[in-house]
Design brief:
By secondary structure, this protein is an alpha+beta fold. It is built from five helices and seven strands.
Length: about 180
Amino acid sequence: MTEEQPDKNESVRSQLFGLSASVYAQRDGKILILKRAGGEVTGGWYIPGGAHERGEDLETTARRELFEESGLVPDGPLTLIGLVPMRVYGGDAIQASYAADCTTGEVVISDEHSGARWIEPSEYRERYFGDDAITKVAEQSERVAAIIRAVRDDLDRYIVWADRENEFRELQKLRS
């Protein structure tokens, strides 16, 4: 291979999927959601997250995006909840979602968002990810509805995990 000849394996080495990470930031039984001010699904309420940067592992991406979008830092380790496939900005992407306790600090939103609130996960699901809401979105864009369905599936995984985690923490308290 010379400078004039392109590397035949370049397409294999190039990124085939966009990568991103998000965080279910937990505090007092609620999760943080942010209202998108622009881009895909403007006006939608979603957990903090964003694009992976070259050289980062996905957990670092999750921590960075959480801080950039909300000013929060996790109290400890992150737990991988799931992988969410989606088609955004003209390409296929995979988003890794994590859960983390964020019991201190005030939320300071970035210019990517126009609002922030803490909400119980089941209320979040009912309000923004119910069948009626997804049907309305699908009438406008099946692609966006597919993203919302994938996010809802991930939220369901999170809710199951959080319920089990809370039960485990309660058992630990009883044992001590």
